[in-house]
Amino acid sequence: MIWFSKLNIERLLALLQKITGWTLLGYLIVHVIFVNRLAHGELTEPEIFKYFLVLIGSIVVFHAMNGIRIILIETGHLIPKHHMEEPWIYYKTHRIYIWVTIIITILSFFIGLYMVIR
User: Fold this and answer.
1) Percentage helix, strand, coil for the chain under 3-state DSSP, each rounded to 5
2) Where would one find coiled-coil regions in this protein (predicted)?
3) What pTM did the predictor assign?
4) Distance of CA 67 to CAs 50, 62, 112, Å?
5) Of 71, 75, 63, 72, nearest to 104 (Cα)?
């Protein structure tokens, strides 16, 4: 429980990265089984499946954007070179990227939902 004692945005994003990664792995396994049964005529594709794909698409977008954020931090492009003065998670470029990630993830969900409903 020490990990959760000071839950900042960086720890939350790391936790979400792990959760979305495991979710996508589970989806990939279920998807292969589902498509195999669908190809052999054992199943028909339910209508609710389209809404599930919208959710999975948004998870993919978040996972990719957060992965790019981690790469940019590791290569030093998202944080200043001398970030020892204060914690780097409070720098403006990092906060802007987090907000861009949130906005793009939400937009991808609603765009996907619009495409399904239309």
Assistant:
1) 75, 0, 25
2) none
3) 0.83
4) 26, 8, 21
5) 63
